[in-house]
Every structure is written in C-alpha cells, then in structure tokens.
Amino acid sequence: MSTEEIINRAARGEETDLDDIVALLSSKGAEAERVMEAARGVRDRMFGNKTFIYGFVYFSTYCRNDCAFCYYRRTNSLRRYRKSEDEIVMLSASLRDAGINLVDLTMGEDPVMCADGHKAMRDVVRRVKEEVGIAVMASPGAMDRESFRPMSEAGADWFACYQETYNRGLFSKLRLEQDFDRRFNQKIWAREAGMLTEDGMMVGLGETVRDRAEAILGMGAAGCEQIRAMTFVPQKGTPMSGTDASASDDELISIAVMRLLYPDRLIPASLDVEGIAGLRTRLDAGANVITSIVPPKMDLAGVAQHELDIDNGHRSVDHVLEMLDSMGRKAASCGEYNETVARMKSKVRIGD
Ligand code: SAM
Ligand code: MD0
Ligand code: SF4
C-alpha cells in the first residue's frame, strides 16, 4: 500500500496494521511532509486552532532510581533541589495567572515525597488544587496500587507515567531495576481511581522503527487520553552520555502518526527537547498541547533540557503565547480545557 493509501485508511478510521505504521514512520522528504499535513488536518478538524498549554513544575530532582538515560538518576552527582509546599503553590499560582490550563507537578522518585504511600506528594497536589484551582497532572514516577485512589481524591486530574518503549528487552536496559509490568500497570491503576492518563515513548535511544510502531500501538491500545513522543537528549555523567543526539525527524513523524491513528487524543509538543525553536515543527506535525512551560529565574529545571530557554524567558507563558499567535493558533481558556477534561473523564477508556 502507498503512503497515501495508508493515510486515507487511517483518516477513514479503518484498521492499520504494524507494517502500515512502519511504512508511515519510514517516510522521508515530501512523503513525510504529506503525513504531517494530513495529521494537521485531522488535528484541526478535531480541535480547531485551539492549543492547550501546560505549566511544568519539576519540584524535586531527588530520585531513588537509576534510569540510564536520565540526568537525575541517583548515581549522577549534581546539585539537587526540593521546593517547599508554599513555593510549589506560589509557582503554580503564577503560572495560572499567566494563562496556563494545567500544572504538571513532576518529581524524581524522591524518597521523602514517596514515603507513607506518597503522602507528601499528595499534600502538594491537594494544596495546589484547593489554592490554585486549576487542572493538575501528577508525575511522581511509579506508585503502589493503594496510593492511586488517595491521589485522585487529593485532586489529581491526570496521572503521567511514560513506558518509554514497549520493547521489554530495551526497557530493562533503560529503566534499570524497574519492572515493565508494574510501570504499565500505573496507567491501569490510575484509570481505576478515576484519573486521566498519559503514556509516552522516547525516540533515538537504540530502538528500531518497528519498536516505535509497537510503542505507538501499545500506547494507543492502553487507552491513554494523552500520548507523547520525545527525542532522547544525551546527558552528562550518565552511561548514555556518548550516544549521538538524534535530530527530531523521527519524533515529528511519530507525533504525526499518533495523530492520524488517534485523532481525539491530546498530543504534546514539548519545549524540553529543542526549546522554543522546536515548537512550530511539533505543532505542524499535529500536536495540540504545549508542555514544559517553565517560569524564568525561579531556579526550576527541565528534564531533558535542564536549562535551555528557561532563564532567558523563552519557555515562559508570555513568550509561548506570542509564538502561538504568530502561528495563527490560539491558547485555549481554562474553561475550554476543563470542558475537554470533563468530557474525557465521562468516558474514561478502559482499553480500546
Ligand atoms: N521521575 C518520574 C518518571 O520517571 O516517571 C517523572 C519525571 S521523568 C524525569 C519524566 C520523563 O522525562 C521520563 O519518563 C522520560 O520520558 C523523560 N526524560 C528523562 N530523561 C530524558 C532525556 N535525557 N531525554 C529525553 N527525555 C527524557
Ligand atoms: C515535558 N519536561 O512536558 C516535561 C516532562 C513530565 N510529566 C513531563 C517530560 O516535556
Ligand atoms: Fe528518576 Fe524519572 Fe529520571 Fe528515572 S526518569 S532517574 S525515575 S527522574
């Protein structure tokens, strides 16, 4: 089947198989452009020119894990921080005032925040929900099953936990000493507790095109309302520091393919890979959410790019809104975003 035929099948909502997805992901040049154009069309049909914008508060960079790809792995030596509850509330409120739709409260698996069934993390979520009053995403890493209901009751609308890859062999080389099934179950347990879920894959860390296709199908079948692809950024002091940094082409085509296959899901354009310079290409590939907006001069880090574009203000809400405007797109209001969340919550996917 030609790329055009596969695009048309996907656009009609007809079944596409693994080989079709491999073919789409392998497209280059004008053909890849065509896949992205089709993805933009699908996105605009589903969401118009509205884009959702998420503030990112990486409130603790302590971590008990040792993921091979991550700057914040426990064995890397770096200056770490843990923000206080008051600081987290203040940062979230200032992001809200600047116009974000959701705050993503993210941490490493910080033993202090994870103790007693994630009590301290939950207290942060509750205070942000009560005092800031916007949608909240919790990104604490992996939790025990009993912690999900309380996290949902504390006010987390979303639970994010990225599988990175659906290739179990590769997973074990990346997420050292972690269990594939336990991480996959995070999404299921979060949904049982009433939260929306986000899954994600990383691109450029040794996977094949077929692995990428399997990850897209895996994330789709897991029924997560938000799905993402992010290019791996090599990190100093880690076992993968010598890996060549990949261009973003494979991420962009992955975004486009996810959009074609799963028209109604939320798909982020993360500023955490190429900074603000990478925004337009990701939106042009069919993304409809901007993530990793970080306020400047607050001593906050990104994950993949811990400094890029933060203190110069290019990852601030104001700058992102200006950029969106120049692309003829609009930021959604919180009312519009909350309606989308409510609609998705009313039909939480139990797996497609
Ligand atoms: N600690 C929690 C966890 O691992 O689920 C939440 C934060 S973690 C830092 C969030 C995500 O950042 C990871 O799941 C991974 O997809 C992404 N990430 C981490 N290091 C990265 C890197 N070097 N390049 C690209 N993405 C990275
Ligand atoms: C982002 N740096 O959105 C963030 C992060 C965690 N939930 C999200 C990977 O790109
Ligand atoms: Fe820790 Fe998350 Fe980094 Fe893994 S990806 S080392 S769990 S912060």
Question: Secondary-structure blueprint of this entry?
Answer:
Elements: H1 3-11, H2 18-25, H3 29-47, E1 50-60, H4 85-98, E2 102-107, H5 111-132, E3 135-139, H6 148-154, E4 158-160, H7 168-174, H8 180-192, E5 196-203, H9 209-221, E6 226-231, H10 249-261, E7 268-270, H11 271-274, H12 279-284, E8 289-293, H13 317-326, E9 330-331, H14 334-346
Parallel strand pairs: 1-2, 1-8, 1-9, 2-3, 3-4, 4-5, 5-6, 7-8
The chain binds S-adenosylmethionine, 5-amino-D-isoleucine and iron/sulfur cluster.
S-adenosylmethionine binds next to β5.
Characterise this structure:
With 352 residues, the chain is of the alpha/beta class. It has 14 helices and nine strands. The chain has one domain: Aldolase class I (TIM Barrel), CATH 3.20.20.70. α3 crosses α10 and α9 runs parallel beside α10. The model has no long low-confidence stretch (mean pLDDT 96). The structure holds S-adenosylmethionine (SAM), 5-amino-D-isoleucine (MD0) and iron/sulfur cluster. 5-amino-D-isoleucine (MD0) binds next to β2, β7 and β8.
Name of the CATH superfamily = Aldolase class I
> How widely separated are the two ends?
25 Å
Going by CATH, the architecture would be Alpha-Beta Barrel
* Biggest beta sheet attributes: 9 strands, parallel
Key traits:
single chain, 352 residues, TIM Barrel, nine-stranded parallel β-sheet, 14 helices, 14% strand, globular, binds S-adenosylmethionine, binds 5-amino-D-isoleucine
What does this entry show, briefly?
The chain is of the alpha/beta class and 352 residues long. Helix content is 45%, strand content 14%. It has one domain: Aldolase class I (TIM Barrel, Alpha-Beta Barrel).
